[in-house]
Amino acid sequence: MELLPNVLYGAAYYHEYEPYERLDQDVAMMKKAGFSVVRMGESTWSLWEPEDGHFTYAWMDRVVDAMGKAGIKVIMGTPTYSLPVWLYHEHPEMLARPLGGAPQFYGMRQNMDTDNPIFRSYAQRLVAHLVEHYRNNPNVIGWQVDNETSSNGASNPDVFAGFVHHLQEKFGTPQNLNKAWFLNYWGQDINNWNEMPTPDSAQSTGYKLEWSRWQQMRVTNYLAWQAALVRQYRRPDQFVTTDFAGAMHRDVNEFEVAKSLDIAADNIYHGTQDNMDGWAQAEHGDFTRSLKHSNYLITETNAQTTDWTSAFQYPPYDGQLRLDAYTDLSSGANMVEYWHWGSIHSGQETYWKGVLSHDLEPNRAYAEVSRIGNELRRIGPHLVDLKISNQVGILWSTDSLNAISFMPFSSSGPQWASAQPVADYGTLVSQVHHTLYRLNVGADFVFPEDPDFSRYKVLIIPALYIADDALLQKISDYVENGGHVLMTFKSGFANEDSAVRWERAPGPLRKATGFSYQEFSSLEHPLALKGDPFGAGAENKVSYWAEFLMPEHATALAWYDHPFFGRWPAITRNSFGSGTLTYEGTYLSDELQRRVLLDVLTRSGLTGPDQSLPAPVHVKHGTNRFNKRVHYYLNYSGSAQQFVYPYADGVDLPTAHPIAHGKTVTVQPWDVIIVEEN
Amino acid sequence: MELLPNVLYGAAYYHEYEPYERLDQDVAMMKKAGFSVVRMGESTWSLWEPEDGHFTYAWMDRVVDAMGKAGIKVIMGTPTYSLPVWLYHEHPEMLARPLGGAPQFYGMRQNMDTDNPIFRSYAQRLVAHLVEHYRNNPNVIGWQVDNETSSNGASNPDVFAGFVHHLQEKFGTPQNLNKAWFLNYWGQDINNWNEMPTPDSAQSTGYKLEWSRWQQMRVTNYLAWQAALVRQYRRPDQFVTTDFAGAMHRDVNEFEVAKSLDIAADNIYHGTQDNMDGWAQAEHGDFTRSLKHSNYLITETNAQTTDWTSAFQYPPYDGQLRLDAYTDLSSGANMVEYWHWGSIHSGQETYWKGVLSHDLEPNRAYAEVSRIGNELRRIGPHLVDLKISNQVGILWSTDSLNAISFMPFSSSGPQWASAQPVADYGTLVSQVHHTLYRLNVGADFVFPEDPDFSRYKVLIIPALYIADDALLQKISDYVENGGHVLMTFKSGFANEDSAVRWERAPGPLRKATGFSYQEFSSLEHPLALKGDPFGAGAENKVSYWAEFLMPEHATALAWYDHPFFGRWPAITRNSFGSGTLTYEGTYLSDELQRRVLLDVLTRSGLTGPDQSLPAPVHVKHGTNRFNKRVHYYLNYSGSAQQFVYPYADGVDLPTAHPIAHGKTVTVQPWDVIIVEEN
Amino acid sequence: MELLPNVLYGAAYYHEYEPYERLDQDVAMMKKAGFSVVRMGESTWSLWEPEDGHFTYAWMDRVVDAMGKAGIKVIMGTPTYSLPVWLYHEHPEMLARPLGGAPQFYGMRQNMDTDNPIFRSYAQRLVAHLVEHYRNNPNVIGWQVDNETSSNGASNPDVFAGFVHHLQEKFGTPQNLNKAWFLNYWGQDINNWNEMPTPDSAQSTGYKLEWSRWQQMRVTNYLAWQAALVRQYRRPDQFVTTDFAGAMHRDVNEFEVAKSLDIAADNIYHGTQDNMDGWAQAEHGDFTRSLKHSNYLITETNAQTTDWTSAFQYPPYDGQLRLDAYTDLSSGANMVEYWHWGSIHSGQETYWKGVLSHDLEPNRAYAEVSRIGNELRRIGPHLVDLKISNQVGILWSTDSLNAISFMPFSSSGPQWASAQPVADYGTLVSQVHHTLYRLNVGADFVFPEDPDFSRYKVLIIPALYIADDALLQKISDYVENGGHVLMTFKSGFANEDSAVRWERAPGPLRKATGFSYQEFSSLEHPLALKGDPFGAGAENKVSYWAEFLMPEHATALAWYDHPFFGRWPAITRNSFGSGTLTYEGTYLSDELQRRVLLDVLTRSGLTGPDQSLPAPVHVKHGTNRFNKRVHYYLNYSGSAQQFVYPYADGVDLPTAHPIAHGKTVTVQPWDVIIVEEN
């Protein structure tokens, strides 16, 4: 996409939802608030095409024009995420069939089978018209295809037929499939492809994993199809994006989807009031930035409150809206857009409030937004296109997320109830990212398909349950060539079909880990580590899982304090080639994880003054367009914080105050200091 | 209805359920116990009409005759609440279709679509025959139509068609409906009436509210239809009633239903043993009495135990049955009828025990019932038709109950789970009624349709979330004209279509409340009130919800003790015209509510000696047929209680002991003193 | 069946599940481990009959042959518990229809309607072929029909038709049925058999009970049919068994099923690590042994871990596998077979690990199994066919289990939620068995159909809610003739149709119990017994239920400590004829139950030195083939235990050490001493 002159700042805007005409008033208020962008159009197919084949644009043209006159750019969305009633009535079979086949009814959005060919033909006709209509409108700078797209859990006949076709292509013969999925088990092997049972009651772990991949592939294909369609009609300088609903989904492979986009975008909702520490924004930001190793857009984030009921209304404290905007920019966002401008007066999101309250008058939020917007007009050019370069990567495996969820390693309930995980792949990934965040060490996410891990000094690999031999070999080579890996239990255990390897665990990782194991145990109760080797205190224990590691070359870093488990190490480290692999055979408490990770980072030379900041203050670094280093100091607390500024002399961009190396700096409650080095 | 000579006392009686012939024995026991009434016939359509079009009466005639000979009157029920098997087999489509369309099967009672025209024709034929048969039987004094009628959650095609027709009548055009319900949202507006989606997956808050009204209208219409049918055939002095299953339902508008009845009736089940404090009976009694501002019938209440399993069997302590009967009479009941006479030996209600145990012999309950029955024969004429006149009203809004449940303001779980309210409209109403009960201040319920609030000095308005402008204006006028209102948060927030008002909250109430607000917050943790302004102690906090009230004329009575919320008052009072409006912007603890309410009552001159009674003793007042004041003193505890009697000299009706003004009186455990002034 | 030369020891073996050819390797390892038996074939219909009508045996023949060469016997299973895909595709209607009629899909095992006539014809053809094929193979010593058979909850049309036919046979006329089930209630009586409603929404307690019996009868009939089919084709010395999935099911009447078997078999899974105390094995062993009053087979038990997820992986501590094998033998097992040999690499039971881990190499479990196998080769002939003779019986009533579950007497939740029992028939039975186990008093289970209770000195009768008059008379006679009964509340309350008796409770037991009652109460809170009559300490209370017992001849042993309940005794004892009946009108704490039961046992002369062992040590007694007494001392703890050996001089079979009367003996952690008297 084209270089942006400044960060974009604005909101989603639905004039069509408002109870009375107030376009001029809204635009004037936006302009006064310093808005530079709005996102529109993605929610209201029924106005674009009120009846089958009748298209209307006037309702939107006047809004786009008014924005243009006020200097506010438009990102236009294709409105395919919610079916109009007439289309549902013509083709009720479009609704997504859930596993189990319960009947579905019209009413919720995002509930169609996006593979349905008739749905596709209606969507194609509309999107083509729409893009053609606005391709020459200079105020429309980009396109969002669909909205928070997911698989919608669809298992309609056409989805299943596509899946069987996919299996045919992937496995060639039923016999290959039977072997890969071990379908002799319970005598469920198939003789020919048309015998394939539907996924509704599938118990096969191979089937479940491949079905989860198929759901991801459906999302990837659908968005790629829409992106290509838009590209066919758009003006070349209009970018194409889609907005992820947060990150790290079970049925969306964001890394694959991003290949179809000019720029990635994310909807990030986060805690506020006493639950705002910047971490959710950092995790999602790091993930989204890593998809294309580039800057990204925040298409939606909290304005006043976010809630599908009225039981979780937490309007931000004074300063939190502003702190949030800089939080996003500090992770590499090039746009911050609220969802949304004016609160809706009816329906499911009545209490998902916009910048304006239901009275649509200026209010406390509008006042703070106006401060941000006008501040960004001034300092935004120093913040846009921030280049961030991290030396730590976290490997994200959607396959492992899914496969572990089918065979969870923890449960809040008894065995005879369904397992209700309290810890899982997701909590492990969050734990390591949160630990890095608390340590103020920037991290990227890395994907199995990434051809090159070597850009990172340290690679963190949580529970890589699903991996083919090639991926394990790539990890092993990374270590051998000098990389430092921190890896947890269950890594390398199952192959790409979710079959447990039939060589000694951890399979192809054995040389790199320096141990093998034949047994593992759930931990009925948390266990202490013998002698508290990391000085974390006796209350810091390990939980859920213990592999019975038998070191071959590895060194034990910690042992279980238990008469039975005590004979096996809990944590090991192995030198292999010129790198090291530190392995956690069990689930560490947060503080233990912090100490183990800090040890790995320190040995890799990745620590420094950033680890000495007061706990509520987080720092982010990058390089701006002027090739200057920028340091964000963000205070996520209601009290002022002090620290010694350790970098080169610079200036605090919002206040234009000089900040000298070695001087003690105070950052006010819920405030930020942004130092641009001189 | 005709004037009753005495309170009615008896039980439901199902001779047809008994394992062997024992009519004479039962009647003799009833007579000995002082019974004056039984209710029969409503449960056994299959005996009235064993085959399609064949009617039999003999099985019941002999029971009615035997009752007549024993001087026991009969209330006959129309047996339409449970389909006979043959009718189900002829018309399985009669079963109520639940939202979502899950298949339904025969077995449970009250599970038909009462709008089904074939059901109606069968019911009409049967009821007409039945009423005609007993119209000339002098022993049959009244008719109960149907039994504990509700909507049965039916969404059958005919119910939905009726709903669309209702929308057409109410809104005129689809465009009006789209506008009222904001159906542009997610592009779900309709072009014509036949596009209307079913309610199964409706997300529209307008749709949900109107559907809840339609379910109430269905109940109202069905019962009005049956009542009219009975009136067509009955003897004029036979009254028509129906028995509500308790009160304050989401799908029954008792106020509307009552318009079709000669007298209201309620089935009141309540706690026993250590959980009997008289409050449930008082709340339901106050509600039922308020429907027609008149005396009412208790058609069912606890005999021995009430339970659809055997896990909640709590037979009353000695004295509790008698205390319960007088509890009902003290609220204005003219009848107390147990459910039921003899315990059933099989089926769902095996453990919902009658006066007699399964052995059908005299027992502890029968002995106490006999004492009551014979006592009432003596003193009942002094207790029947008690006229009760209260000066406090509580506004009950079924619409607010429903609309708040769609957007609850509290939840026991996290945001990502469905909201499980721990406080809601119902708990608020119960809190204020319970507070009045504990204060021994009598209260009526008031309904939005009530043309005149001015009969009350104090009107309590909990969370009136749904109200049209006219109702809000009526409240405002009531204050302006000298009324005293105690109102809670969320009142006036949404209009009659559950759309949040787009004028500044609280909309048309703004002058009466003396403040406006633009923001509100859920309270993650309870908050104290700064300086404990009501002297309730620091442990008494406010919870769930806080509106950011900006006083315009109102005075702050209390502030939140919190660095952020502390800038807005929690409770305000405004003088408007010659009245006052006290407003709670948050959910008070019970003790805080007690103190705020007592303050309002005291300022309105509604307090006196009744507030000084020992806690377990409750007092109720009324005027009897002899135009004498009657004071009930009911002791809901296992220990004797003493108090100074503050009213004019009188006599204790059960014991005939004189009770003098100013004298200390002792009321025995689970006992009652009923003073009739001289 | 033929006399076994030794206990059988081995595992289930599924060569067809393994990822590569390793038959010779597996057999060599089994042989080295001392295996004498494998169970095979029951899981893989799709290999026996890969296409409709094409049968293959070669895949299994080579496995059977290899076993034969290694001296390992084979139990062959009929593979009817899991449908092949092709059969499902030909006849999807075979899948079991659940109550409520939700659609079912292929994927899970054990989900067919075993009454479906087409299923039966396919099963018949396959089983006949199979048995014929192996009837002359001398290495195949027995047949297991089906696998862990249950009703599969099937309510398919043919199942329902069979049920109606059964009702017709049992009740004769609809009128009789109406009367037995009290169907006048809610007017649900039927006029003719084709009006019978399906069970989906049945509320009738009579219906529910009879439907539960029908599900049991279906299992009995199906297994009897398969057993007869096998007998038609087998070699006469091949035994027929089936493996129960544990014991005491709601839909399996194990006592009736066992009549079709040559020997009973059970799959016993139990706690390990810190949750292994031998009790689960003892309870299931006692139950299975009691079915035919004979030795039995353990067809499946824990190898490494047992878990359908990976959240409950608890590999045994060192010694626990061996202790477990002797635990089973000490209860009368003649075989111990693990499920299974090699862990499966994919599918639902990936983590239900076999003796070998997924690497299929020797491991810790294999080493311990090898020790056991070779030890048993040596000492097994002294352990096989252990004859056990107990003097205490526990009456097991599947009907009472079911009927009480429809009307539970306890609930963890409030009344308005569905009752979630925390105590029920099953917990009562487990409590008394566990108490006996802790006391080291051996017990049998007794079934209502047992013609003779007199073999027991003490008969324990928990909550015999369902019983016809004849059974109650038999109990009464047992007492009158000198038996000692310990009976709990609810016994005798309902008749064989789940109708509460209409004579005074406890009906025909009244003479034997020496009391009657008309009332009972749930206990909202646990109550103490007045004066702690059993010296159990004040913290030991009674819960859930209290019958208001009115002694006629019985003596009160304990009273409730409560102002209301205190007038009725909690526990009574009655002398009747030459026996006694001790009755618990309430649910005792475990310790109270221990003291009451110990009192009964002591008075019956059933106590001795076994009650003085250290808590973790349990003793079992029997007589072996050499007519010698054998005493197992099993130490279920991680620390060594000591006791004085009180029986005649003997020798410890595993170590061949002499054990002298009166000498102090030490049993090592998780170890066993097996004394054969000289």
UniProtKB/TrEMBL annotation, chains A, B, C:
Residues annotated as catalytic: 148 (proton donor), 300 (nucleophile)
Pfam families cross-referenced by the UniProt entry: Glyco_hydro_42 (PF02449), Glyco_hydro_42M (PF08532)
Reaction catalysed by this enzyme: Hydrolysis of terminal non-reducing beta-D-galactose residues in beta-D-galactosides
Glycoside hydrolase family 42 N-terminal domain span: 13-378
UniProt GO cellular component terms: beta-galactosidase complex
Alphabetized UniProt keyword annotations: Glycosidase, Hydrolase, Metal-binding, Zinc
Domain Beta-galactosidase trimerisation: 391-606
Binding site for substrate: 109, 147, 308
GO annotation, biological process: carbohydrate metabolic process
UniProt similarity note: Belongs to the glycosyl hydrolase 42 family.
Entries under Gene3D superfamilies matching the protein: 3.40.50.880, Glycosidases
Enzyme class: hydrolase
EC number, UniProt record: 3.2.1.23
InterPro entries, per database record: Beta_galactosidase_Trimer, Class_I_gatase-like, GH, Glyco_hydro_42, Glyco_hydro_42_N
Protein name, per record: Beta-galactosidase
GO molecular function, one term: beta-galactosidase activity
